[in-house]
Design brief:
The complex is a heterodimer of chains A (about 550) and B (about 240).
Chain A: H1 28-32, H2 37-65, H3 76-112, H4 120-142, H5 165-192, H6 205-237, H7 250-284, H8 291-304, H9 320-348, H10 357-380, H11 382-388, H12 392-422, H13 428-455, H14 469-499, H15 513-516, H16 555-560
Chain B: H1 31-66, H2 68-75, H3 80-106, H4 109-139, H5 164-200, H6 210-235
Helix pairs in contact in B: 1-2, 1-5, 1-6, 2-5, 3-4, 3-6, 4-5, 5-6
Chain lengths: ~550, ~240
């Protein structure tokens, strides 16, 4: 590892933090008009956390309602609005921007050795676009919500629409441009802003993952934008672009929608996979196993992800030959995904694995991703999909990959880079306890849904036969634990800003440009342009130097928990 | 700012924030990197635009394949003369834009402003002709929505009545595709004003002309979209 700067002095007086991006200027204006990628990342963090909470409230109401077979809390129409708003908020305003816009924004320029993203003002613009989009969708909630399901399928969203579809769709349309601009910024930054010596194959795998993500953002999002525009034209003018009565084809909407929305799943997944590679290599004290395989598997997922959308329409009167092709291609995505998992496991093999909080999250990620990924292979099978299509099996599957895995990675990444972002440590034991609680809660919430789906419980219903109640109550209990689990990190992260010890530059003994600069970084990240003069992930198998293991838990400590 | 600033004071790797080229943004190392970055950014943006128009064109072609007779009949009502004229006008504007970019690379302020003005005028000629076409269609009841071919006098458009829904769909796509294209032209006109001001204030020099080049890329892209729209809408089925 290259030399660490002198910032690594844990004995610094508490009241005298070094000049950094947080204390360089104060006041609301200095934040709302900032072009600093680090501050914009934090602005996004507030945004996504807010929408996660909103989406979580909808989820809580749904799970409460589902604890009895009959309606008791809400009416059917309200329930339709609950699951629709939950899906819309969580997908478009939490999951898609979650990792790239926060951690990606903060870290990508530092990781490539740049002072900022290629287009700092466009970066700020993207946050405002995202918030305006969120405002429209929030307004649609205030006016009563949407009942189309998050997919806005026609004719629910056109001929038979009876809720604020246009407002919510407009919000999604607008926030799509935030996604496009973020993707554009990342892509250009990786191409043009790399420091001397930072060749493509020395880039951290986090950057590779975000590069692949940015390709999807750039190529996929415009298609859903034009699709929403077509629905808007259909709605406002009363014409039949997707209305069969007037010669339109509702399945065409599904094709256009999923052309974006399936790759969008990889917008949610790939950045998390990038985080995984960073954490696992660091806490195994080993160079990542199969660097190029992981890098190219990100690209493979991004590219192949564009030609699998038809698996959402196995039952939607799609040609059976198209179904066979889409089925095969869907299976194929499992290959690069499995390559990643095997490489992470191989990285841990014979490594000095340390169970610091980020690593706990990373390990639990593998568990959730494995279940979610493998059940995806079930669903990619034509025959089985006919049986479980639109059941809780699907619901459980995509929650495992998109929520279980992505949120674990997001939280793991936050725990990993929190000392860098805020300059503070956090209570390790509580963090590890929270990780365990989230895992248990998640498993309990969604594992029963696989069974429910297999037994025939359709999604989007809130009245169900009594024999399903036991599994539904299990799921609701799990969701409650999950909710409690998510609150814990919010609390200790918030209090850490005041009460936790200041972080040294490199509390984990981790490799990468971001750990060679002070915590928190200065306004322009680097005092002088860094030079990458070694291979990435140059970990050695022993514990790092004493000034670089502030957050590391040695074996004897780990035994206590 | 003066256009006479040389490039020799642009620092290398160790350049600090307090002394570098006044036209170099804080996060770039040198002007070359800045220009390359801006250009790649524009290309990436245009790729995004291709997907945007691509989705629309794909939907159009799918319905065109399904309702060939109706779409052919409807397409035959588009004035091929004006469409062809507009194609020539736009290609002409691409030529003047290319000349403006060339002038930008040479740092010739007067030439940039002249050629960009010519480009702008041709752009407005295009939009003017488009307005004439739209007005003619509207006056014959080719109005998207519930007034489509309603009322008495269809005149020459009576042959659309047997398949009015499909013909309606053709015209929805016609208005959407040409409308989106026209919107990009209008945005282009707005951007042109901005570039014009930058050039006028001597912010474009031999060293820093990416703004003209990138505007040129955008303008050519909008032209190329029309090169696809013209045959798809006006010529197919003739």
């Amino acid at each position: 590892m290259t030399a660490i700067t002198d910032a690594a002095a844990p004995a610094r007086p508490k009241d005298a933090p070094k000049p950094n991006y947080l204390n360089v200027s104060y006041g609301l204006k200095s934040w709302l008009l900032t072009v600093d990628h680090k501050r914009i990342g934090i602005l996004y963090l507030f945004g996504v956390t807010f929408f996660f909470a909103v989406g979580g409230i909808f989820a809580a109401l749904m799970r409460l309602e589902l604890s009895t077979p009959g309606p008791w809390l809400v009416e059917s129409d309200t329930y339709n609005r609950l699951f629709s708003m939950h899906g819309i908020i969580m997908t478009f305003f939490f999951l898609i921007p979650s990792i790239p816009a926060t951690l990606g924004n903060f870290l990508l320029p530092i990781m490539v050795g740049a002072k900022d993203l290629a287009f700092p003002k466009i970066n700020l613009l993207s946050w405002y676009i995202y918030m305006i989009g969120g405002l429209f969708t929030t307004a649609s909630i205030a006016l009563g919500g949407v009942d189309t399901g998050w997919t806005f399928y026609t004719p629910y969203s056109s001929t038979y629409a009876n809720s604020n579809v246009m407002l919510a769709a407009l919000g999604v349309f607008i926030s799509g441009f935030a996604s496009i601009l973020t993707g554009l910024n990342f892509m250009v930054t990786v191409h043009k802003m790399r420091a001397p010596g930072m060749t493509w194959f020395r880039l951290p795998l986090f950057v590779w993952a975000h590069y692949a993500t940015s390709i999807i953002m750039l190529l996929g999002t415009p298609v859903v934008a034009i699709t929403i525009l077509l629905v808007a034209v259909e709605r406002t003018l009363g014409v039949g672009i997707f209305d069969p009565k007037l010669g339109g084809d509702p399945v065409l909407f599904q094709h256009l929608f999923w052309f974006y929305s399936h790759p969008a799943v990889y917008i949610m997944l790939l950045p998390g996979m990038g985080i995984m590679s960073e954490i696992i290599s660091c806490f195994s004290r080993k160079p990542i196993f199969g660097y190029k395989f992981i890098a190219f598997s990100s690209m493979a997922i991004a590219i192949v992800g564009f030609i699998v959308w038809g698996h959402h329409m196995f039952t939607s009167s799609q040609s059976v030959y198209a179904g066979v092709a889409f089925s095969f291609l869907t299976m194929f995505v499992a290959v690069p995904s499995a390559i990643k998992v095997f490489n992470w496991v191989a990285t841990m093999f014979r490594g000095s694995v340390e169970f610091s909080a980020p690593m706990i999250y990373a390990l639990l990620y593998i568990g959730l991703f494995l279940v979610g990924g493998l059940t995806g292979v079930f669903l990619g099978t034509l025959g089985l999909d006919l049986h479980v299509h639109d059941t809780y099996f699907v619901v459980a599957h995509f929650h495992f990959v998109m929520v279980g895995a992505t949120l674990m990675a997001f939280l793991g990444g936050l725990h990993f880079w929190w000392p860098k972002i805020t300059g503070r440590m956090y209570p390790q034991r509580t963090a590890r306890f929270a990780a365990g609680l989230i895992f248990v809660g998640f498993f309990l919430a969604f594992m029963p849904q696989f069974v429910l789906g297999y037994l025939g419980m359709p999604r989007r219903y809130h009245i169900y036969p009594e024999e399903f109640q036991f599994l539904h109550v299990l799921s609701t209990a799990g969701a409650s634990i999950l909710g409690a689990g998510y609150i814990i990190p919010v609390v200790y992260f918030a209090t850490s800003l005041r009460f936790s010890p200041r972080a040294v530059a490199n509390p984990w003994g981790a490799a990468g440009f971001e750990w060679e600069i002070q915590s928190p970084p200065t306004q322009f990240n680097f005092d002088k342009t860094p030079v990458m003069d070694h291979e990435p992930y140059n970990y050695e198998s022993e514990l790092p130097a004493p000034d670089q293991r502030q957050g590391i838990i040695t074996m004897s400590e780990a035994d206590l928990v | 700012m003066s256009s006479a600033i040389g490039t020799d004071d642009v620092g290398g790797v160790e350049d600090e924030h307090d002394h570098h080229h006044p036209q170099l943004a804080h996060h770039f190392e040198d002007l070359d990197q800045q220009r390359d970055t801006l250009t790649l950014g524009m290309w990436a943006f245009l790729v995004q635009e291709i997907m945007f128009f691509g989705g629309l064109i794909a939907a159009f072609l799918i319905y065109r394949g399904r309702y060939t007779d109706a779409f052919d009949t409807a397409a035959n009502h588009l004035p091929i003369f004006w469409g062809a004229t507009n194609t020539v006008v736009l290609i002409g504007s691409s030529l003047t834009m290319a000349l403006a970019v060339k002038a930008g690379q040479l740092g010739k302020k007067g030439a940039i402003l002249t050629w960009m003005s010519a480009t702008g005028i041709l752009g407005f000629v295009f939009l003017g002709i488009k307005t004439v076409e739209y007005t003619d269609k509207f006056s014959h009841g080719i109005i998207p929505g519930k007034y489509f071919l309603r009322g008495g006098a269809h005149g020459a458009y009576a042959d659309l009545l047997p398949f009015v829904d499909q013909a309606h769909m053709f015209y929805i796509f016609y208005y959407m595709m040409t409308g989106m294209h026209a919107l990009h032209m209008v945005i282009g006109a707005g951007l042109m004003v901005w570039v014009f001001v930058e050039v006028f204030q001597d912010k474009v020099t031999k060293d820093k002309h990416a703004i003209v080049e990138n505007f040129g890329l955008y303008w050519h892209f909008v032209d190329i979209v029309w090169i696809f729209l013209f045959p798809f809408l006006y010529l197919l089925g003739r």
